[in-house]
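Sequence and structure are kept together here, with a separate record for every protein. A complete record is shown below as an example:
=====
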Amino acid sequence: MSDLQLSKPHQAIHDAFTTALSTYRSPYTVELRGYYLQRLMTWAQDTTEHGSVLRLTLEDFHTWLSKDVGPAISTKRSARSTLSVFYEWAETIGKIKKNPARKLPSMRNSVGIPNPCPTDDIQRALDRATRPIDVLMILFGELQGMRAGEISRAHSDDVMLPTKELRILGKGNKQRLVPLHPLMQELLPQFPTGYFFPSDRNPSGHMLPRSIGRRVRHLLGFQPGRNAHSLRHKFGVDALELNPDLMGLRDLLGHASVATTQIYTKASSSRLRKLVDDIPEPPGHRDRLQALKRGLMQG
């Protein structure tokens, strides 16, 4: 099968799982878990004889995680979390007798390095924007450091102009208040009341995080590493370059741990370039270099 088409039994299981999950998890988490479960189900349909997600084994999970999910550790961790949550639910309601995902090893998150979107790419994205909401989703990432899921749920009620603050609903339905960038103070009141990215195609009433992410990648020219999260990384790098307040940046980005925020402490490429360029040229080296170049040209 293709295009993530599910069989009728799988669709019924998928709907029951996401419905149950929605009673205690955020819409973003429900969508993320539902997405990876859908991928797992289509993988089971396409690669196993029985074609059932309820008959997969620990060995099947290892194969799926290593070959079908993608190379990024963060992606594998999201997929693994989906396995754990889904099969725990399936065992609880009697769909399976024993949870095969219980023995999955834990995955340590990669330390990573910041991946800030270059200013030129952002300018070109703004030039490609054909709608006001295109501009807004770019600026929410670049100037407020918001995740795609946070951007998708942004509402006019979250804007507090008297205090110049923005309320952001982050991971795990955790709220945070952050200062509004001066440009956003001017821009946001121009939009209609309600969700900034409305959609009548979803029960939530707003665009889904995946749709926001897809649109941002389009605006950024579908270049590798250019996405909504690279806009958030640009915000983090820029903020820390101007003010080395790690705890403050943690609160702005909504990180649960300052260890996550520490990736932004890695020096920017411009600072590294300055460190190298400022090393004085040793006496006599330029003459030796010119002689070497002449020898190479003659030989």
In short: DSSP finds 14 helices and three strands in the chain.
